């Protein structure tokens, strides 16, 4: 079961190394070439994801002998023939599987059906079918003309003159022909003429490169004419290693830049692609470099490390993305952090990929607060200032790249929830594990404890010492209660109270609370009436939910110290340091008594003590968010410690944690 959504904490840095999973484009090409070739091929570094699984299982259904173990596979080539004369093949949403397989099967002829997920049935394939029909291939559309599902029948192959294929919708149509047609070039040249401007050219270069590895040298004139010479034969190279995926690399390369914006990051290195890569998407790193990123290239790695000296932000500008359609999506995210608008051009193919990516990008970027303009084949993204970011739930449209791209939004000033994170399985099932491993969340120190344990004063002193923000979560309940009393909202009107809580324009500065231009002292909210009302509304789940989001929104760089009762258990379960602060009931009663007296409130120690015991009992026994230490909390008993000593103990715990992280 994959989760419905994934909450990403705001990030303050990144650093480390990622061993990239194999390239999707190379994996699926190599699998097909190995199946079509003469001889046995041992493949290493193969990608294990939805897209390669559909290719592998299709080849098995077609009678190709293959063994797979992790990222290695052994394929016994069929020397140009698929043994199974008929098959029903599910292609998921893998363009790199359905298009080349359609060409290979149609040229052989048989009784085959190719289909996929609903979106696959909206992705065009008509240009490829038209090209194949020029050879006498029998291909029918089961539904809408021009789209899968396809039914392939017996072929009466003939070759009379050049074959033409359109290149301006997807380069995969040309790739499909180039991969399959060597089987028909034994006796005569096969010439392919490309109509319209070929898009995504570097992917055709991958095709040509891998064909060479399998013994076929295609000659090309510009990007319009390709000749597969007579006598061509696909022969296994024996062993072939798949590079890491350059498109998947783009998210981490971006993280290596964005993670340094708060100067808390370290270099991020992707391993498995480098300056010798055959994938066009490594050009993403060059684009980043042009925009001001600091990039290092190795033979088998690329590393980013923030911005080039002297720069404060990435540059904006216009970027032609014709050659890097997939990695271009990542540029739409880095654009949010630039110093000027970024316009991505020549991205018309986005409209017919996993989803209409121009529409999806524009819609989801707008949820973050960004100003976005778009046209048929372009997108302009205006950068976001820190105070313009909005927290959002990002829809991912069953598009792996939407999910991976928007993980980068957590370097902004917002809480990001990614819907259907499992969709990354199309090309990168372990993406979020790798992303969490190399990113560093904005730190939170959660200080929970019973009433009068001194957590408020300690939290604010710790925050001041570290330069972090401070959140007194108890105050939020009291403020909501105070606002409800003032506005006459009934204390049992859950929906109205939740609405009030969700939109409290509150901030904390210089030890005071600011709400709607009014400034308070925490003591002003400690009246009996507000206290009673706060305790009533704190028991309402809708109010707790609303305040949950509000409390989490205080987690912003450079860090947060949050005090309350459920900070470490409920609100910030991933806090880097959790302290559960206690003191004996007698000493807490004495502290509270002294506080009351010093504020000029008459008090009797015995009564204060009794009230405190009552409050403890209520807090530990209540149904929602009962007071208890988190399993991983440090227990700190301050009965015999002064305030200064307690603060110093918390700071020492924090320093120990920080050293471990570094
Ligand atoms: O040939 C390939 O491996 C690919 C070509 C590109 O598609 P288009 O040619 O449709 O742009 C790219 O977007 C896709 O992810 C993989
Ligand atoms: C467009 C993509 O996939 P496909 O190979 O299915 O075309 C992609 O991975 O971004």
From TrEMBL:
The active site is at residue 326. Its main location: cytoplasm. GO terms for biological process: amino acid biosynthetic process; aromatic amino acid family biosynthetic process; chorismate biosynthetic process; pyrimidine nucleotide metabolic process. CDD domains: CMPK, EPSP_synthase. Catalyzes the transfer of the enolpyruvyl moiety of phosphoenolpyruvate (PEP) to the 5-hydroxyl of shikimate-3-phosphate (S3P) to produce enolpyruvyl shikimate-3-phosphate and inorganic phosphate. This is Multifunctional fusion protein. 3-phosphoshikimate binds at residues 24-25, 29, 170-172, 200, 326, 353. Keywords: Amino-acid biosynthesis, Aromatic amino acid biosynthesis, ATP-binding, Cytoplasm, Kinase, Nucleotide-binding, Transferase. Pathway: Metabolic intermediate biosynthesis; chorismate biosynthesis; chorismate from D-erythrose 4-phosphate and phosphoenolpyruvate: step 6/7. SUPFAM superfamilies: EPT/RTPC-like, P-loop containing nucleoside triphosphate hydrolases. GO terms for cellular component: cytoplasm. PANTHER family: AROM/DEHYDROQUINATE SYNTHASE, PENTAFUNCTIONAL AROM POLYPEPTIDE. It holds the Pfam family EPSP_synthase. It comes from Thiomonas bhubaneswarensis. The keyword DNA-binding does not apply. Phosphoenolpyruvate binds at residues 24, 95, 123, 172, 357, 401, 426.
């Amino acid at each position: 079961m994959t989760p419905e959504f994934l909450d990403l904490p705001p990030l303050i840095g990144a650093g480390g190394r990622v061993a990239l999973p194999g390239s999707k484009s190379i994996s699926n090409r190599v699998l097909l070439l190995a199946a079509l070739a003469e001889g046995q091929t041992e493949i290493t570094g193969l990608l294990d994801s939805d897209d390669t699984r559909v290719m592998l299982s299709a080849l098995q259904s077609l009678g190709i002998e293959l063994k797979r173990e992790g990222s290695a596979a052994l394929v016994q080539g069929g020397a140009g023939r698929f043994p199974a004369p008929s098959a029903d093949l599910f292609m998921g949403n893998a363009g790199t599987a359905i298009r080349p397989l359609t060409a290979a099967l149609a040229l052989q002829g048989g009784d085959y059906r190719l289909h996929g997920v609903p979106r696959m049935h909206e992705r065009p394939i008509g240009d490829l079918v038209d090209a194949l029909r020029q050879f006498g291939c029998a291909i029918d559309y089961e539904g809408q003309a021009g789209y899968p599902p396809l039914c392939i029948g017996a072929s009466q192959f003939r070759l009379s003159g050049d074959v033409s294929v359109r290149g301006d919708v997807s380069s995969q149509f040309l790739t499909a022909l180039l991969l399959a047609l060597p089987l028909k070039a034994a006796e005569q040249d096969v010439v392919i003429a490309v109509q319209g401007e070929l898009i995504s050219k570097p992917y055709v270069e991958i095709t040509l490169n891998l064909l060479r590895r399998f013994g076929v040298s295609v000659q090309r004139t510009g990007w319009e004419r390709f000749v597969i010479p007579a006598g061509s034969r696909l022969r296994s190279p024996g062993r072939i290693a798949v590079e890491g995926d350059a498109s998947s690399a783009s998210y981490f390369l971006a993280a290596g830049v964005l993670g340094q914006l708060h100067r808390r990051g370290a270099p991020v290195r992707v391993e498995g692609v480098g300056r010798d890569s055959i994938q066009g998407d490594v050009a993403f790193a060059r684009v980043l470099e042009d925009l001001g990123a600091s990039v290092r290239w190795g033979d088998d790695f690329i590393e980013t490390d923030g911005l080039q000296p002297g720069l404060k932000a990435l540059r904006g500008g216009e970027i032609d993305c014709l050659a890097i359609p997939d990695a271009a999506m990542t540029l739409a995210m880095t654009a949010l952090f630039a110093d000027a608008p970024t316009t991505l051009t020549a991205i018309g193919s986005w409209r017919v990929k996993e989803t209409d990516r121009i529409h999806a990008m524009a819609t989801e970027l707008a949820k973050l607060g960004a100003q976005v303009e778009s046209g048929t084949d372009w997108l302009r993204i205006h950068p976001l200032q820190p105070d313009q970011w909005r927290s959002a739930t990002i829809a991912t449209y069953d598009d792996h790249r939407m999910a991976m791209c928007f993980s980068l939004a957590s370097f902004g000033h917002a809480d990001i929830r990614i819907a259907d994170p499992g969709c990354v399985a199309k090309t990168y099932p372990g993406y979020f594990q790798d992303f969490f491993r190399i990113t560093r969340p904005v730190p939170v120190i959660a200080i929970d404890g019973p009433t009068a344990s001194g957590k408020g004063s300690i939290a604010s002193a710790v925050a001041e010492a570290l330069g972090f923000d401070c959140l007194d979560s108890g105050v939020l309940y009291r403020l909501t209660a105070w606002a409800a009393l003032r506005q006459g909202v009934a204390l049992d009107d859950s929906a109205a109270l939740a609405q009030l809580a969700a939109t409290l324009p509150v901030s904390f500065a210089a030890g005071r609370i600011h709400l709607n231009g009014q400034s308070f002292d925490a003591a002003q909210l400690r009246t009996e009436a507000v206290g009673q009302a706060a305790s009533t509304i704190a028991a309402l789940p809708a109010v707790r939910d609303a305040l949950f989001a509000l409390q989490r929104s205080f987690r912003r760089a450079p860090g947060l110290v949050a005090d309350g009762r459920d900070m470490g258990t409920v609100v910030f379960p991933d806090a880097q340091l959790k302290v559960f602060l206690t003191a004996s009931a007698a000493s807490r009663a004495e502290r509270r008594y002294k506080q009351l007296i010093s504020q000029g409130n008459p008090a009797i120690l015995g009564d204060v003590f009794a009230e405190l015991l009552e409050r403890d009992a209520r807090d530990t026994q209540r149904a929602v968010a009962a007071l208890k230490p988190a399993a991983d909390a440090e227990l700190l008993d301050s009965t015999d410690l002064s305030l200064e000593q307690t603060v110093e103990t918390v700071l020492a715990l924090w320093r120990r944690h920080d050293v471990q992280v570094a």
